[in-house]
Design goal:
Elements: E1 12-15, H1 26-32, E2 36-39, H2 52-59, E3 64-67, H3 68-71, E4 74-78, E5 83-88, E6 99-101, E7 109-112
Parallel strand pairs: 1-2, 1-7, 2-3
Antiparallel strand pairs: 4-5, 5-6
């Protein structure tokens, strides 16, 4: 974060679950200010399941939090006008994140291990 400073931004962050601890510390979330966080988790094994406290903490960042365990698959669509929509496989009509304006002109996608 020190290297990129205020230029560090992401509209969408895709994260897995580390073997220890939690992904995406609060300082990083505050710096990148994502509109959507996709958590790549699964029902089994239990160690691959995002716990409620993690999902609640991520939601406090004001980003829409989407779990692949809940949705199965997530599609992020970006338009040339800078609009983004997020659709879940299990609830395609729900418009999980609605539409959001991208942070940057071309948009940004960040992933974490």
């Amino acid at each position: 974060m020190q290297r990129y400073g205020p230029e560090l931004r992401a509209d969408v962050v895709v994260t897995g679950l580390p073997n220890t601890g939690e992904p995406l510390c609060d300082a990083l979330l505050e710096a990148i200010n994502p509109a959507v966080i996709v958590v790549a988790d699964s029902e089994y094994p239990a160690s691959e399941r995002a716990r409620a406290p993690l999902l609640e903490r991520l939601a406090r960042s004001r980003a829409r939090v989407v779990s692949t365990r809940a949705e199965g698959a997530v599609t992020v669509t970006l338009t040339q006008q800078g609009e983004m929509s997020v659709t879940g496989f299990r609830s395609p009509g729900a418009g999980l994140a609605g539409h959001a304006r991208l942070n940057g002109a071309a948009g940004a996608l960040a992933t974490t291990p």
